[in-house]
From TrEMBL, chain B:
This is Polysialic acid transport protein KpsM. It is found in: Cell membrane. Keywords: Cell membrane, Membrane, Polysaccharide transport, Sugar transport, Transmembrane, Transmembrane helix, Transport. GO terms for biological process: lipopolysaccharide transport; polysaccharide transport. Belongs to the ABC-2 integral membrane protein family. It comes from Komagataeibacter europaeus (Gluconacetobacter europaeus).
Length: 223, 286
């Protein structure tokens, strides 16, 4: 379970009376796939980072129950050290989570299919190699909740298909919390949804209702 | 999944591995929390050891060369100006037992102080606490120092250039206190350097005189009273004195105060922890 209680978050350079998230309350119990829709700058990424524990709220509390592993955002590669090889980066993250290093390395190497680049310092690797490793790394650790900040598939069609297949396999034992503006992806993957507007979450019983509100909201903005 | 990994199923889909270090138990969270810190710090030490010293082993060699070079330069200067031996006739041992404890403090305070700035990306990692980064950096520095000291002093003992320590426990006490103070000052440096960029430039300037004022190359008993009064404010002078007195009773001095050193060690850690606590939200996003 992740519980957010009265969470407010603003950033420097932004008026304090206009926070990104404002007195937000929410409970994610990990029983459903949650989709959160929001326009540009509505605070989607901020929400995901707070849920992941990558940032503190200005006020309020975020509590994660210890029996549930929450992922860092899917495919996030910001933790990789450029002077270390893909293999060593994978080993480091596996150690942090107490996962079997060799299993993780073998999984990432076979899944990413990047050959000898796996042993080169990541700073010398192309961005596609990095994102292949990052995606495989997210799957190599067994999380109970995957946090997804827009699905950005990488690589050729075959690799994209493999990513989707592997992620689908993972989701048999895990739930997701996804933020996106891509209505089609969210409709396909999530069962319950909310719209992030004015720093608050507006919840709906079904994903379809949430999508309706989001599209209405967009319509109003466009008109 | 039978614990097998990376099996390509018939349709080309991969079966992800199931990590062994499964979920923590909710009914008892103390041990899992401790195990997590232990694991995180271990992973960080291995990572830092890998990136800090570069990909060649020359990096580790530098840790050994630096203190030797300091001792060598000062020995040559002493020999050139043909000065009287400081104490006990063994110039080399006098210098080594001064340079080593000083390096323990200086290197720990400096590298721990840089740990947060150079690991910004890790501060955002959900499992990693800022104190994990600081602790792992300090431990790596401490272990490196221990290896270097054992090599140098061990080498000198083997080559009959030095006796074995007379009161080893006193040396160990000095090492613990100096290391603690290095961690405390390092933690203060880490926080201040993150909040206030100029501190990174200021700290080396402010502490530059410490090297000369810690009685590494002279004996505190032979300093004129008016000067000594001021020098005794420096906690590292007491650290060096305590280490030396433990190594050889000839080096014992009545001016040494282990209590004063302890107070600095504990005080700096307390101040560092408080600073870290106060600034933890700003540090992660700075």
């Amino acid at each position: 379970m992740i519980a957010m209680s009265d969470v407010t978050k603003s950033y420097r350079g932004r008026a304090a009376d206009n926070p990104v998230l404002s007195h937000l309350n929410a409970v994610f119990d990990g029983s459903e796939d949650i989709g959160i829709l929001g326009g540009n700058g509505s605070g989607k990424s901020t929400l995901i980072r707070l849920l992941a524990g990558m940032d503190y709220p200005d006020s309020g509390e975020i509590i994660r129950s210890p029996d549930m592993r929450v992922s860092y955002p899917l495919s996030y590669s910001g933790f990789f050290h450029p002077n270390m090889s893909g293999r060593d980066n994978v080993r480091f993250i596996a150690r942090l989570y107490g996962a079997d290093e060799n299993e993780c390395i073998r999984f990432v190497r076979e899944f990413a299919e990047i050959g000898r680049s796996f042993d080169m310092p990541l700073g010398f690797c192309s961005s596609s190699v990095k994102s292949r490793i990052a995606f495989a790394m997210s799957l190599a650790i067994r999380f109970d909740i995957y946090l997804v900040d827009e699905v950005s598939a990488v690589g050729d069609v075959a690799f994209k298909r493999r990513c989707m297949a592997a992620f689908a396999e993972r989701r048999k034992h895990a739930k997701i919390i996804m933020v996106s503006q891509a209505v089609t992806t969210i409709r396909r993957m999530c069962t319950r949804g909310a719209v992030l507007v004015d720093g608050q979450l507006s919840w709906h019983e079904t994903m379809a209702d949430a999508i309706n509100e989001f599209e209405n909201q967009l319509g109003i903005i466009h008109v | 999944m039978n614990g097998s990994v990376g099996n390509t199923a018939g349709n080309g889909a991969f079966v992800p591995p199931v990590p062994t270090g499964g979920g923590t138990q909710a009914d008892n969270w103390v041990m899992p929390a401790l195990m997590r810190h232990y694991r995180v710090i271990g992973a960080l030490i291995l990572r830092t050891a890998q990136t800090r010293f570069g990909h060649t082993s020359v990096g580790y060699l530098w840790a050994l060369i630096e203190p030797i070079a300091h001792v060598a330069v000062m020995s040559v200067v002493y020999w050139a100006i043909n000065r009287q031996d400081p104490v006990g006739g063994n110039v080399l041992l006098f210098f080594v037992t001064g340079v080593l404890p000083f390096f323990l403090f200086q290197k720990t305070a400096l590298h721990v102080g840089a740990a947060l700035r150079s690991n910004q990306m890790l501060l955002r990692f959900p499992l990693i606490h800022a104190l994990d980064i600081v602790t792992s950096r300090g431990l790596l520095e401490g272990v490196t120092w221990l290896a270097v000291s054992v090599l140098i002093l061990g080498g000198m003992i083997m080559g009959d250039y030095a006796p074995v320590p007379e009161y080893p426990m006193e040396c160990v006490g000095a090492i613990i206190l100096i290391f603690t103070m290095g961690m405390g000052v390092g933690l203060i440096n880490a926080v201040l350097g993150k909040m206030w960029r100029s501190w990174v430039m200021l700290y080396p300037i402010i502490t530059r005189p410490l090297y000369h004022f810690s009685a590494i190359f002279f004996f505190i008993d032979r300093v004129p009273v008016d000067l000594r009064r001021w020098l005794l404010w420096n906690p590292m002078l007491h650290g060096v004195a305590l280490f030396r007195a433990g190594y050889l009773s000839d080096y014992d001095t009545i001016y040494m105060s282990p209590l004063y050193l302890s107070q600095w060690a504990i005080g700096s850690v307390v101040v560092g922890l408080c600073l870290q606590r106060i600034t933890r939200k700003r540090i992660i996003s700075a």
